[in-house]
Design a protein that fits this description.
Length: 228
């Protein structure tokens, strides 16, 4: 493929429905889904994608049961600990790991691990993997406005570029959503203004390397005009 998205965003959806249809607990769906997260990073790295943003837990997800939320936090903790154990390989690959969202809302031990992994990978420059955790596009915009106010920027000098500089990540070329739903669910609402979208009917635990290639091939066939 000649045309690869520089920044790919993925809305991970369908873990619970995947489990329900198989008579399994919802938590097992999340576990299988997290195993898929590890694979998608390698697949995207091998295809030359420079920024990958994974929507793993939204600001709205805090409304779920305490049992489910706690399990998801433990899964994320385990995943980041795995990154720490394999830090030599990650650094050799040049992967920078970042968490975007309301880090102050997550458990203290998870927040500590996030800071450690971000620090260990901060100098890597071949690929950025953003985990959108306790993330919401509207919250991100509110935080950007707060930052602009703190900097005491003259309102007359506030431009789109100024706002972009205060967001957590950059514009997205392609958004993939699994699970059959066709909405963005408060994901990077500024950054997707000119994104291409690809909706996959498969639940996230069933998403394969071939499915990724189909999405990328579909993207490569499109003409992005940006209103021209």
């Amino acid at each position: 493929m000649k045309k690869i998205p520089y920044h790919l965003g993925i809305i991970i959806d369908g873990n619970r429905r995947w489990a329900r249809e198989r008579g399994l607990p919802a938590l097992e769906g999340h576990r299988r889904g997290f195993d898929r997260v590890k694979k998608i990073i390698d697949w995207c790295k091998n295809r030359g994608i420079k920024i990958l943003t994974l929507f793993v837990f939204s600001t709205e997800n805090w409304k779920r049961s305490k049992k489910e939320v706690n399990y998801l936090m433990r899964l994320l903790q385990k995943g980041l600990n795995d990154f720490k154990k394999n830090i030599k390989k990650i650094n050799q690959q040049g992967i920078k790991i970042r968490v975007i969202g309301q880090k102050e809302r997550v458990p203290e031990n998870l927040r500590k691990t996030i800071n450690e992994v971000e620090e260990l990978t901060k100098n890597n420059n071949k690929m950025v993997v953003n985990f959108a955790l306790s993330y919401g596009g509207r919250v991100e915009l509110v935080e950007a406005i707060k930052n602009i106010i703190k900097k005491k920027i003259n309102p007359e000098k506030i431009t789109e570029d100024i706002i972009k500089e205060n967001l957590w990540t950059s514009d997205v070329d392609l958004v993939i959503r699994t699970g059959g739903e066709q909405r963005i669910s408060n994901f990077l609402i500024w950054q997707v203004a000119y994104s291409e979208f690809y909706f996959c009917s498969k639940y996230w635990p069933d998403f394969t390397e071939n499915d990724l290639d189909e999405a990328l091939q579909d993207y490569a066939r499109r003409q992005r005009r940006f209103g021209k």
